[in-house]
Amino acid sequence: MKQPSIQPNSQPTSALMLRETASQTAGPYVHIGLALAAAGNPVREEEIWNEMAKPNAEGEHIEVVGTVIDGNGDLVRDTFVEAWQADANGHYQADYDLSKPFNSFGRTATTFDHGSEWSLTTIKPGAVEHPSGQLMAPHINLTLFARGVNIHLQTRLYFDDEAEVNAQCPVLSRIESPARRQTLIAKREEADGKVRYRLDIRLQGEGETVFFDF
C-alpha cells in the first residue's frame, strides 16, 4: 500500500528548522568581491568603502587606523574589516546612500602595502543609549574577517580622550580587568594637522584584544 506523503506542516517544528551552515575562512574571496582595491582589481563607480564621512558631514572629522596582529606577533595582511557607528549625535544611520554626507557603515582592509594598515575616514561618534537607559561611551563597532579565522570576530574601538565616559560605559565596564579594557582604547595622534586614532588589534597571545559574542 502506498504510504501517504507527510505534509510539511504536520512535522514537528524542530524538523523544519534550517540548521546553521558551517563557517569557512575568508580566503581571498571577500576581498575579491568587497575590497576590490585591496585585491588589486579595478574599483566600481559606487563602492562601500572606508570613507564614511564626507567633508561636509556634521561632527569632528577624524581618521582611524590600525593593524591586525596574529599570535606570533606577525601582521595579518589580508584582514577585511567592517565598521558600524553612530553619527555625531549618537544616532545610527540605517539607510545607506553614497550621496549622504555620513553613513554609519563602512569597510576597510589591511594590505601588503603601507605597513599593512586598515583605515577609516569618519567622524567621532556621539554617545549611544544602552537598553538599560545608560549612555555608552562613543565607540565604533568592528567586525573582522581573515584567512584562518573560521568565525568572524567582533570588537569595539573606544577613544582614549573620553576617559570619563569610558569609565561609566555599561559595556566597557563589564570587562573586569582594566588591562583588558585597554585593548579596546584607540590612542589619539596628530598626523598632517589631522586628528587620528590608532588601534592595533591582536588576535591571540599577550595583549589579546577583547572580542564580543553579540
TrEMBL record:
It is an enzyme of class 1 (oxidoreductase). Pfam families: Dioxygenase_C (PF00775). CDD domains: 3_4-PCD_alpha. InterPro entries: Intradiol_dOase_C, Intradiol_dOase_core, Intradiol_RC_Dioxygenase, Protocat_dOase_a. GO terms for molecular function: ferric iron binding; protocatechuate 3,4-dioxygenase activity. The keyword Oxidoreductase applies. Keywords: Dioxygenase, Oxidoreductase. It comes from the Bacteria. Residues 43-205 form the Intradiol ring-cleavage dioxygenases domain. Its EC number is 1.13.11.3. Belongs to the intradiol ring-cleavage dioxygenase family. This is Protocatechuate 3,4-dioxygenase alpha chain. The lineage of its organism: Bacteria, Pseudomonadati, Pseudomonadota, Gammaproteobacteria, Oceanospirillales.
